[in-house]
Amino acid sequence: MSTLTVIIPTYNEAAYIIDALKSVAFADEIILIDSFSDDETVALAKPLVTKVLERKFDNFSGQKNAALQHATGDWVLFLDADERVTQSLEQEIKATIANPKHGGYKINFPHYYMNRFLYSHSDDVLRLVKREGASYSGKVHEKLTCEGSIGKLENKMLHYTYKGLTNYITKKESYAWYQAEQLYNKGKKATLFHFFFKPIYRFFSSFILKGGFKDGVPGLTVAAVNAYGVFQRYVKLRLLYKGMR
Fold first, then answer.
1. CB 12 within 8 Å of CB 41
2. Residue whose C-alpha is closest to residue 157's, from 129, 131, 122
3. The overall pTM is greater than 0.85
4. Alpha carbons 22 and 111: distance in angstroms, whole number
5. Where are the beta strands (DSSP E) in the chain?
6. Average pLDDT of 48-63?
7. What is the pLDDT of residues 179-226, one digit of tens each?
8. SS3 199
9. Which backbone phi and psi does 155 adopt, to 5 degrees?
């Protein structure tokens, strides 16, 4: 019978980690890889996990690939601390790995923001894969690859994205640095096009094309912060060229 390892990367997730771990208690193995949290994340998690790994954060792919080296399950599910596996998704995961038709499966993530789920802001993300041959690449918005074809599970993963507007903006600022560094390493430079049209298009895509307008103020806020994140990416790229990281 196929076995399942759950990998959860963390940094200061004390407020979220217990519920995340409880939602995957059905797994055969749970690995927590922590970036030296200075809150109670590790202490709270230890009784509920199989292994705790501590590793200095370099990038998102590095953390997850490091944890993969310690996984023993036939299948691996990657979970963030602010995500929850529902009972229906649990049953589907169990049935899927018992009789798999693909080498990996995407899961839909409707975002929870300002006390509501934004189904117009949802993503299909590859998260459940056969361990052999699986790996991550990319420093931010990392990409998971696996051997074989990719299917999609029907049930959704709950994603409690919103931890306050300040936290949301800070996360965008952090991602912007990683994205800017990737562009810098490729020799890309920021132009007026990037500063002006790229943020506008991101807002248009989020609010209009993806239907964010249906979610009212939360949808508008998400679109605006997403556009801000794009703008900051190119601000930080310009700063890198000036040696101001």
1. yes
2. 122
3. no
4. 20
5. 4-10, 29-34, 51-54, 75-78, 83-85, 104-112, 117-130, 135-137, 143-145, 150-159
6. 95
7. 888 899 999 999 989 999 999 999 999 999 988 898 888 889 989 999
8. helix
9. -80, 155
